[in-house]
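Tokenised fold entry reproduced for absentees:

. . .
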Amino acid sequence: MTGRVKPTLTALWHALDEAAFGSERTLNLRESLPSTADARARAEVWLRARQMTKAKEVLVITGRGNQSAGGIGLIRQEILKMLPSLRRRGVVESWKEHSPGSIVVQIAPMSALLEAPRRRRNNGASDAPSEDEPGLEGLQPTTVTLLKQLALQNLEMLGVTDSGPFLKAEMQRTFSALMAAIPATGDREQGLRDAIVKGIEEVSD
């Protein structure tokens, strides 16, 4: 009798998680058993993508680490080590243990992502684009127009009334912040436009 209860409860918890988060808001690292490096890379890309879709709370399943040497969850530890870095970069807001094998992560709003480079600059770090990063000159006119709108909204929120002297720098800063969060595969400019629109909508809400 006792031997059948635990699997039944586990299946129930999984069903409740599926109902609460759904496949779009669940990253299951336990099923594919990736290396710690692969798990970290996959989780970072996935969490950044969830921010672009304006998800608020997501579930990352790491597993307990029962099959790891010494029973220590190496993937779980790696993800927990990564999350503070993503919080500093404005991707995640907070996280908490959901179960011994999963973590609930609160995704940061787009405004936090856009603010992160400014905080780094104020702390003495440079947020200037790298030499191999595409510049604003290569963007399509529609993208530039959207980027300008978002930059103007950002400056307005900062209380800048005369945006002229600061507009280009704010457009470049916003562009750099968003490009850093967009996956390197696929149509990156379309991804950039989608991210800009979401940023505009969030500021307008």
Q: What stands out?
A: The first strand starts at residue 26 and ends at 28. Residues 1-5, 126-132 have pLDDT under 50 and may be disordered. The radius of gyration is 20 Å. The helical segments are 2-21, 29-32, 36-52, 74-88, 110-122, 141-157, 164-181, 188-204.
